């Protein structure tokens, strides 16, 4: 979906989002409440410039508008794989972005992520997955790594991975599989503005992804392992 059409459906009460070099930023009204909107479009990779621009927008919102909701619109092919970005320390820029989102959450800013097109690799991990809750449209393409690349790295034959992907969502791309694993809270249909309004009313800063994955059968071991580690350190799970 084109970001302009998405914005019109998400924010019928109005918005002033603009796109510059594939970076989206602006304000929008949701059920009478103003939110800061950031994101990407055009399947753009996240390089140092966009990572820094998103972090700047979040820090500015925290400084100027305490408690204002943050909406992250995700469409990215992952982090930019260029020698220049690597030499500049793209990993630190991505970490900085993730930390800014986490700080906003801890400071009382509701943070909602929405994958409306493509979400891959580090560009997704340090944006939508850092939100209080991440949602997706039905046609969204979500994956950390393609099966051919996974086969090359793990040395497991691609045919075997494709067979595993039929029954195990960990190996398979797609919004439904990420829903089953708990990475995506829900897939939005029909009235997107109503979906967003409900999501903002239900925001919870607690990380429920492992719990959701266990409930939905997509990640059966993450929650028990977390609980075991916490119990061994006498820490009560959230």
UniProtKB/TrEMBL annotation:
InterPro entries: ClpP/crotonase-like_dom_sf (IPR029045), Malonate_gamma (IPR009648). GO terms for biological process: carbohydrate metabolic process. SUPFAM superfamilies: ClpP/crotonase. Pfam families: MdcE. NCBIfam families: malonate_gamma (TIGR03134). This is Malonate decarboxylase gamma-subunit, MdcE.
């Amino acid at each position: 979906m084109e970001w302009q059409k998405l914005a019109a459906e998400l924010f019928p009460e109005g918005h002033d989002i603009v796109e510059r070099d594939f970076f989206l930023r602006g304000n929008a009204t949701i059920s009478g409440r103003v939110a800061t909107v950031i994101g990407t479009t055009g399947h753009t990779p996240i390089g140092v410039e966009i990572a820094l621009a998103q972090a700047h927008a979040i820090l500015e919102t925290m400084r100027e508008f305490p408690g204002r909701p943050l909406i992250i619109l995700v469409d990215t092919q992952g982090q930019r794989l260029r020698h220049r970005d690597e030499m500049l320390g793209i990993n630190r820029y991505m970490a900085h972005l993730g930390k800014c989102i986490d700080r906003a959450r801890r400071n009382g800013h509701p943070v909602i992520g929405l994958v409306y097109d493509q979400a891959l690799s580090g560009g997704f991990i340090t944006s939508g997955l850092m939100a209080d809750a991440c949602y997706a449209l039905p046609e969204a393409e979500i994956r950390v790594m393609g099966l051919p690349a996974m086969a090359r790295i793990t040395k497991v034959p691609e045919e075997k991975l494709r067979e595993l992907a039929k029954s195990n969502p960990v190996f398979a791309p797609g919004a439904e599989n990420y829903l089953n694993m708990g990475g995506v809270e829900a897939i939005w249909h029909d009235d997107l503005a109503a979906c967003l309004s409900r999501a903002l009313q239900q925001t919870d800063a607690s990380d429920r992804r492992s719990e959701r994955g266990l409930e939905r059968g997509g990640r059966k071991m993450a929650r028990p392992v977390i609980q075991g580690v916490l119990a061994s350190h006498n820490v009560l799970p959230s």
